[in-house]
Amino acid sequence: MSKDSIILFVGTYPPRECGIATFTHDISKAVKDKYSKEFAVKILAMNKNGTNIYNYPKEVIMQMSDNDIGDYIKTARKINKNDKIKLVCIQHEFGIFGGEYGSYLVTFLELLNKPVVITFHSVIPNPDPMLKKTVQTISQRCGTIIVMNKKGKGILRNEYGLKTDIAIVPHGIPTVPFVSSERKKNKMGLKDKKIISSFGMINRGKGYEYVIEALPNLINKFPDLLYIIVGETHPVVRKEEGEEYRLMLERKVTENNLKKHVKFYNKYVLLEEIVDYLVASDIYISSGLNPDQITSGTLSYAMGAGRAVISTPFLHALDYVTPERGRLVKFKNKKSFESAIDELLSNDLLRNKMGKNNYAFTRKMVWPVVAQDYIKIFNKNVSRKNKIVFKIPQINLSHVKKMTDNIGLIQFANGIVQDKSSGYALDDNARALIVASECYSIFDNKKEVIPLLKKYLGFIEKTQEENGKLFNIVDENGNVIYDQWSDDALGRGLWGLGSVFSNKDLPINLRKRAQKIFDKAIIHMEDVSFPKSISFALIGLCNYNSVDKDQKYIKELNYLADKLSSMYKENSSKEWKWFEKMLTYSNGKVPEAILYAYEATKNKKYLDIGLESLDFLISITFENGMFVPVGHEGWFYKDGQKAYFDQQPVDAASMVNALKFAHKLTGNDDYLEKAFIAFQWFLGRNMLNCKLYDEKTGGCFDGLGKASINFNQGAESTLSYLLARTTIQPDIKDSRLTNLFF
């Protein structure tokens, strides 16, 4: 798709105040933010009755009156004449289009000759004949229908009989860091309060009165309880009945002596304010009265902020609110609300666990991921020449910098917050040194990277004894723990030092410092016997050798490569072509190291072992066009079963590195394609369809579990993403590869 091309979104749009307007703004912005270099995003805004006038922003290039059938005809013809418009994406809600059940939209679609994708925000069960016929006719004129959960798809298939392609894309949510409610409460002047909240445009269908009626008994047990209701009355409701419902709620508050415990924030809230109130909440209450509600943006937002939820059992909530994430309560039943609120406020451990589960569950719902899902659907509906090229996230060192202090890179994080008590590891600082070295070669602004290079190199110097031995752990006060030595740490240290020494882009003084540490440390490899440790060191040694072909190091290089070769010969068989009797962590590093040895020595034995073992690893870890690494919850023993859960970023990064290097040596494009597929594991092409890379922070979540991700963004996971991302940097403009994302 060319830069002059347009994707036209149709729906209500701010400053008009309604939920669809907010969604149309958010999805179009998410698509624009991710793909603005590929095409333009423009809006066709729906107006009410032809009498409302809105001061729309510049992206609104067309407007249409909902009750004027002539306007639908005129606008469809106008779109047809605009060759730049390649696809129309409609946000559908029955109330925003004219005619019975919004049937004027049928006329619009009958005239339109552009590809159409439509999102149904409401799917009504048990349709009457007119409603059913209208939806069927709309569907026949659309390439793909998007719904937001499985129940919506089931209703359209089973009750409406639709044959059209139906895709499930969840309601998008903002990317919000996981933080405790206490931190936000303090900033908002709500310290020591127990906060429950609800938000959305107020109308009689919200059911807030039943929550208010549940509070009197709870106040006795929780005297600091505060219920915050955020949002103004819906404009349509206000026009028809004024503030009658809100006034009724206020009377109920007064009658129950709850003025200190219920507060109304009566305004149209911006996203930033919504997020603040959600994050400050201990529990979010979704008390809607419509059992057929198929989509709730407010519920999605609350779960995405990592809050425990209590909800009535409408269709969307039935899909999302499991016992691990919250509680479902009866409609119009104050006792049911009272019991659920009491349970969750009385059990901090349970409530916090629910919040963490919700946060992990919703990582596949953040706007960048939803935008990516929409683009995949758009590509299914446009011609080959108009397909959209995937935009890979830019390299972002923000989280690495945040995790780095005056000592070095901190090991662990609680959410996105550094956990200094975890101390520092040579393992991480060595990998950070490699990332910084690669970024120095890639970045235009090299000054950004120099402080990091010095910091991580200085850390490794700090951990080295006079005899050259490298120690792994430094405590939170900067003290080296001299009984914490590991083969892997030594290997990774040599890998990092060799990478810096071999990078001719770097200032010579930094390279010489790395060389000095390397020369003192390499002698300790003689006693190392673990395949991974040997592999890390061998890659570093091969990098070192590419610049300084010292004969003693060539001898050491062959010694380490032969050691791996012997392990391979001892453990491999026709069915099991590996160096050990099990596959564990960072598996890709072993064949990669042997291939490095081949590049350095041209010994074909190393090439054969490297490719044979890599192909075996590919056969284990690629399933149905997806990278599925060996899970750390059990690993994979010869003659045993592969573990699938607790997949780790370090394994995806190792595979990307190995595959990319195999392509460099062989020119086999299959390796390069698989490297890109493995990289996509970070971006949501995994068993849970969850994005592990957080574009907002620049961090990476710590792993993929059975049902959710580990929401902490520690050093190893973030560095693993960056090691993979810098590895594929030279190929990100290759359309053959970026098209693999679809």
Give the SSE map.
Blueprint: E1 6-11, H1 19-35, E2 40-47, E3 60-65, H2 69-81, E4 85-92, H3 104-111, E5 116-120, H4 129-140, E6 144-147, H5 150-158, E7 165-168, H6 181-187, E8 194-199, H7 208-213, H8 215-221, E9 225-230, H9 235-241, H10 244-255, E10 262-265, H11 271-280, E11 283-286, H12 297-304, E12 308-311, H13 315-320, E13 326-328, H14 334-346, H15 348-361, H16 367-381, H17 398-402, E14 410-414, E15 417-425, H18 426-442, H19 450-462, E16 473-474, H20 487-502, H21 508-521, H22 531-545, H23 551-571, E17 582-583, H24 589-601, H25 604-621, E18 622-623, E19 626-627, E20 636-637, H26 649-666, H27 669-679, E21 693-694, E22 699-700, E23 703-704, E24 709-710, H28 715-727, H29 735-738
Parallel strand pairs: 1-2, 1-4, 2-3, 4-5, 5-6, 6-7, 8-9, 8-11, 9-10, 11-12, 12-13
Antiparallel strand pairs: 14-15, 15-16, 17-20, 18-19, 21-22, 23-24
Helix pairs in contact: 1-16, 2-3, 6-11, 18-19, 18-20, 18-28, 19-21, 20-21, 20-22, 22-23, 22-24, 23-24, 24-25, 24-26, 26-27, 26-28
